[in-house]
Amino acid sequence: MNRFTNIDQYKNFFERLIQLERKSEMEFHLNEIMLLSAPQREAKGRAILNLSGKDSGTGIGGVYLVKLVRGSGLPDNEISNGDVVIISKDKPSGKEEQATVVSKTKRSITIAYNKTPPYLVYGRNLRLDLYSNDITFQRMLDAIEDLKRLPILQEYIKSNIDLFEENENTKNHSFQQQNLNSKQQEIINQALVTNDIFLIHGPPGTGKTTTLSYLIKSLFEGGKKVLVTAPSNTAVDNILEKLQNLEIPSTRIGNPIRMDENLLNLSLDVQLQDHPDYQQANGIWNAIQVLKKEQNEYIPASGQNRRGLSDNKIIQLASSKKPYRGIQSAKLRKMAKWIKIQQQINKNYEQAQALQLSAIESILEQSPVICATNSSAGSELLKDIIFDVVCIDEATQSTEPEALIPLVKGRKWVLAGDHQQLPPTVKSSEASDLSISLFERFQKELPANRSNILTIQYRMHQEIMRFSNENFYQKKLKAHPSVAKHSLADLPGFDPFPYVNPALEKVVQSSPAVVFVPCEQGVEEQLADSHSWFNKAEIALTKEITDALLSSRLFPEDIGIISPYDQQVSRLKSDLKDYHVEIKSIDGFQGREKEVIIISLVRSNLKEDIGFLRDYRRLNVALTRAKRKLIIIGSPFTLQSNPIYKSLIKKISNP
Ligand SMILES: Nc1ncnc2c1ncn2[C@@H]1O[C@H](COP(=O)(O)OP(=O)(O)OP(=O)(O)O)[C@@H](O)[C@H]1O
């Protein structure tokens, strides 16, 4: 645990770690760009060559769209919507302007620039490279810098315990909500009366996000302005959905491409479409396009054409209808016309920008609750807004500097999390100190009245929660009676499919709630130069089980498939694309739940190597997503080399 006696010490400590992480991420992509030839990087799916670019107008929020086309079709690649990319002619240097992928077809990929795109992107023989996003690192550094102008936050960072006075009597505030249990209500009361910071702790399914959303409702009703963040887009959508159900007016900022489409109506970009100022700005953008077309009929007043003459001089000479320094008078007139149109374009541009900005400001000012990822809380859009309260969900998954990005924007902080679930992702081994979240640090250092723990869970059948409860929560977790024995049989229409492979019979029965399906014939495989694994036999088994579950009249949205390995996730997504079930990594499922979860553990080798499955927090998250049925597929031989997995397999019944 690190103690800091002054803010400069704190700043130096974290700045070093951030720089190490940043270096690690950039190095990965730049190294690969340097080491591999362009075709090799393309073969890995992280570059696309031989593209031709053309202007594709502007998109939501006034971004500049560029469509990159390859007539022969795009090669197989891992670049998807929302990824940050760079465009170059030859080998990129890393200094290129960054753009975001907006859409992809078989032959084209459209990207968006926030600023005017570099001229080169409208050429031929272009190369597109997947790149890392540097912005989050910059925002972390800015947040640490901001601490300097917020003296009270500096004291919190030092966890100066003397500063934390006793709270006033929580009984004075009597928050009551019949949908919540007494502990959840008590927590809301405590968080409401605390003037500085409160931590909501709780094992999976105990209602941390639910409690946080009711707290936000209460804050909103009390006229407070609240910033709500989480480390990932999925986690932000998860709490936003709850806020929407509670009818709390909220605005979600961030790239709409990365948001749940059912929540898009709450995004800033969609709300903007209805704003009169924004509509007026759109009219002006269209007028600019018309002017640009008209301008093409004249001669651009480029450096070469104008031969050192100023705009005014060209206009003046054009009206005199005489040649000047060897420039024909017709050419002067055409340049003058071009300049006048350009002046009109510039005027219109400024007007459209100002209208757009005023529309954005008015929406953000009027919205009582603003939701964003931790990183996008550092966006320019929120630069001048101070919030009464900042709430971070899944706070144990954020590094301390990442959590500071939203926290420096508020007067009071509420953090929800569970340090037995996924920790922050830290790439650089030298920066491992970042893996202790601010939540974890505060929980150890703050007085007891600044946190409280939830222990009744409302998600899992008691058998599903048993393993995690015994191994990670000292048996303190209780299943609420409404879920303790709930099963697939209670779901309307559920009818176990009779023609299933006899080896999988228990898999489609409502009982037992947890099954382990051995897949000893599976072989783990790795692509050259990839650290991720896949297992074809487990994919086939997952497909068969999903088929059986769907034939038992479960809906696709009831089923979730989880695998710890990205390669397995992407292969499952492609092989099971017609099933429309949600398939994600463990990280992608943190904070979420489904009636049935299938986990494909992938690792199967004679060396008894289970790789990063060893991280028990990852296992804990995977095991606690299912409500009524948990199906685990894996190789008993390989997994049993690890005591935790050995006891897991022993405790659950084989089908
Ligand atoms: N008081 C309650 N009564 C009934 N259901 C509840 C209550 N509190 C929470 N739930 C339900 O329990 C489930 C889990 O809640 P929630 O997602 O808020 O838990 P969590 O602690 O945030 O979970 P995780 O640790 O996985 O992020 C949800 O289906 C939620 O609607």
UniProtKB/TrEMBL annotation:
The keyword Nucleotide-binding applies. Residues 194-452 form the AAA+ ATPase domain. Keywords: ATP-binding, Cytoplasm, Helicase, Hydrolase, Nucleotide-binding. The keyword Hydrolase applies. Its EC number is 3.6.4.12. Signal peptide: none annotated. It is an enzyme of class 3 (hydrolase). It is found in: Cytoplasm. Pfam families: AAA_11, AAA_12, SMUBP-2_HCS1_1B. It comes from the Bacteria. GO terms for cellular component: chromosome; cytoplasm. InterPro entries: AAA+_ATPase, Coronavir_polyprotein_1ab, DNA2/NAM7-like_C, DNA2/NAM7_AAA_11, P-loop_NTPase, SF1_C_Upf1, SMUBP-2/Hcs1-like, SMUBP-2_HCS1_1B. GO terms for molecular function: 5'-3' DNA helicase activity; ATP binding; DNA binding; hydrolase activity; RNA binding. PANTHER family: DNA-BINDING PROTEIN SMUBP-2, DNA2/NAM7 HELICASE FAMILY MEMBER. Belongs to the DNA2/NAM7 helicase family. This is DNA helicase. It comes from Marivirga tractuosa (strain ATCC 23168 / DSM 4126 / NBRC 15989 / NCIMB 1408 / VKM B-1430 / H-43).
